[in-house]
Records
---
Amino acid sequence: MGLFGDDGSGTLLRSSSERRVGVLVNGGDNAKLRLVSHTDVSPFWPGEFTFCPRCATELTARVAKGRPRKVCPRCDWVHFRNPAVGVAGLVIEDGMVLMVRRGPSATRSGLWCIPCGYLDYGEDVRAGAAREVGEESGLEVEIGDVVWVASNFHDPAKLTVGIWFEATVTGGVLEAGDDAVEAEFFPLTHLPELAFETDAALLSHLRTS
Ligand SMILES: [Zn+2]
């Protein structure tokens, strides 16, 4: 059996001593999120590097800098994984919040979220938020202040740091697009079934602030 188990399940990462769970209060008692120092992510998810991107040698798993990682046995390249940046645009008009329903190709398909997506490499963070709102809802928006920042652990194969921005509609026509299949405004007090706990925490905070 290898260091992390034959199934590549990352046993070390699942040991209880690896987790320090507390309470993160991000804007009030109604917006509690788990604070996890290192969430239970395996270094062996499908789609991760199998071969060294520098020298093409097959990577092996070992503890490097205190955590299980994939390492190149030939050139010592270490795969330090980092979360991606997710950006979201929070549009609120007359107590109604813009939500989109996630399409079949999206994680948490069929559930609703604040328009969001991955920031592209080289893209300004606010431009990315405006682009995502436009692609998913058809609405052109002006991006304002940051309203929320949180770590998203819902997809352990692709962790993100989410940044939610205020967004004000400046044009466009409400129509779902890209990987959203519906786009609609909902009263903050009558929301559809939400895809992400981080959206839920933010919306809960907004209802009570
Ligand atoms: Zn290498």
---
Amino acid sequence: MLKGKTILITGGGSGIGEALVKNLSPENQIVICGRNQDKLKKVASANKNVSYYPVDLSVPEEIDHLFKQLSGNKIVLDVLFNNAGVVEQYNISKTGLSSAEIFQRINTNLSGGIAMTRHFISQANKSTENYIVNITSEIALFPVPILALYASSKAGFSVFTKVLRQQLRNTNFKVIEVLPPQIETDMPKQIGNSAKGVNADDFAKKIISTVNSGKVELANGPNVPLLKLLSKFFPDLGLRLIDKMSRKQLQVQ
Ligand SMILES: NC(=O)c1ccc[n+]([C@@H]2O[C@H](COP(=O)([O-])OP(=O)(O)OC[C@H]3O[C@@H](n4cnc5c(N)ncnc54)[C@H](OP(=O)(O)O)[C@@H]3O)[C@@H](O)[C@H]2O)c1
């Protein structure tokens, strides 16, 4: 139950993370992190019981430093939301990202979350029930080719979530995966998607009730049955179909 807990939310300065803060802070102690200090500060002052730590999750030393700071400040966590993420269109022969920029994107969505989880497990207050809530994406069910780095890293994080659940079976740690459909935050706009999505506050409430009900997955978007069907029975046709539909929706040349 998410009540009376100390909860770390990555990417808590905006979007789904900020909506989680708003809904959880009245009854819990919240720690948020992200790169943009101004955004974090604003969320911390608009909600009670919130402290913030600027951290770039794509940089391993910054993650290590965060956990040193938390233990120095006697903050012992019960819950981790691996929520931070980045998305952009990526075509390997056309998009001019350097190797370092490719690493940065994948580290944010995948390696950063794994490193955060490793620290959390060793640092957490094990006298209570602990939750690790990983926000992946519906894209983990079936890849969108034009979002190549996002799709690859989210599918990887989804696999990590499943193996983590198995490795932590019979421990205090409960592992939950959230696969959001399109949510109304800045993220879809960043890739040119202006279609209407789910309200972030409503979705945060769904995440919280999923955790509180003991379920291990939230995948309730309208596209989920189709994505699962394509993945299982029509993977090649599905790739062509999803590529065509997403290029049209995101107005890719
Ligand atoms: N919105 C959707 O339609 C949708 C759909 C499926 C999945 N999701 C997933 O939901 C999660 C939250 O996304 P959102 O929609 O709330 O978008 P958002 O408002 O853009 O939030 C993303 C957050 O991640 C943080 N972040 C990005 N790079 C970071 C880095 N290197 N280090 C630390 N923090 C970093 C950002 O903060 P800074 O910029 O300050 O670092 C930001 O607060 C993401 O994992 C996303 O993939 C969203």
